[in-house]
Amino acid sequence: MTRKLTVAAMAVAFCALPAFAYAQDVASEIALRRGGEPGWYGSLLGGANMETDTSFTSGLAGGKIEQEYKTGFGVLGAVGYDFGRVAQWGGFRTELEIGYRQNNIDNHTVGGVDQPESNGKSKVWSGMLNVYHDFYLPASRLTPYLGLGVGAAYVEADGYSADGSPTLLDDDDTVFAYQAMLGASYALSPSMSLIGEYRYFGTQGVELTTTAADGARTSSDSYGSHNVMVGLRVNF
Q1: CA–CA separation, 177 vs 148, rounded Å?
Q2: Quick one: DSSP state of residue 123?
Q3: Mean pLDDT of 192-220
Q4: 117: left (phi over 0), alpha (psi -120 to 50) or beta
Q5: H helix intervals, the chain
Q6: For the chain, what is the mean pLDDT?
Q7: What UniProt keywords are attached to this protein's entry (predicted)?
Q8: Phi and psi (nearest 5°) for 6?
Q9: pLDDT band at 225 (very low <50, low <70, confident <90, very high)
């Protein structure tokens, strides 16, 4: 009887090995995406920045200076704290972020007339407080997330002009800024994740002083941009 029990126990253990191995794999996958543990992290992202068209009033004929922009770039760095799993399906993070975005002018019109050899750059420095919600997927390295942010932006119109004409805009302003993020992270190791995301970044009206033929005029338009970013997040 003892021998039969021993053989039966060995048979059960042998049959259970695949299930045990699978459970270990699942546990490993969960560990790789950190499993909702609280802690500090840092992130660095970069990618394409697509600024929306802008227009400013002026003293020139037609009353408007309008710009279209080439696709530019953006760089973002952040330090944050992950509060960990608050439910079976997700958790929250918050972070402080510093960003820089730049776009060159593609097309420049004054009073509805296209200007040859349009010049100038749009530059934006930003400081943001962001909040994210992570959606944990069972036994997966992939973690989708949503985020919102508010803060301040230093917006600079650098040398807006047409070839051979005087500079029409060369001013800056600091304004309220906001953003919304949609992305996902993929765990490469227990401490490092690859990030891919889309975000919209916008501001309130930017007050700039134009240099027009009949004197300086103050004008206003908001800044907006669509961003496609990739980067890394490291858990400390």
Answers
A1: 11
A2: E
A3: 82
A4: left
A5: 2-32
A6: 82
A7: Signal
A8: -65, -45
A9: very high
pTM across the whole model? 0.80
Q: What confidence category does residue 229 fall into, taking pLDDT thresholds of 50, 70 and 90?
A: very high
Compute CA distances 177 → 21, 43, 185, 200, whole Å.
Answer: 50, 20, 25, 11
Question: How many Å apart are CA 61 and CA 71, to the nearest integer?
Answer: 29
Helix, strand, or coil (residue 62): coil
Model pLDDT for residues 12-52, shown as the tens digit of each residue: 445 554 544 444 444 444 445 455 678 999 999 999 999 99
Residues contacting residue 44 through CB under 8 Å, at least 6 positions apart? 75, 76, 77, 78, 231, 232
Q: Dihedrals φ, ψ of 58, to 5°?
A: -150, 175
DSSP collapsed to 3 states, 68-116 = EECCEEEEEEEEEEEEEEEECCEEEEEEEEEEEEEEEEEEEEECCEECC
11 contact partners, CB below 8 Å, separation of at least 6: none
- Report which of 73, 95, 110 is spatially closest to residue 225, judged by C-alpha positions: 73
User: How many residues comprise the chain?
Assistant: 236
Specify the fold of 33-235.
Porin (2.40.160)
The tokens describing 101, both together, are 């975005």
- Per-residue pLDDT averaged across 68-78, rounded? 96
For the record, the structure tokens of 224 come out as: 């907006």
> What does the DSSP 8-state code read for residue 214?
T
- C-alpha closest to that of 187 among 132, 133, 139, 227: 139
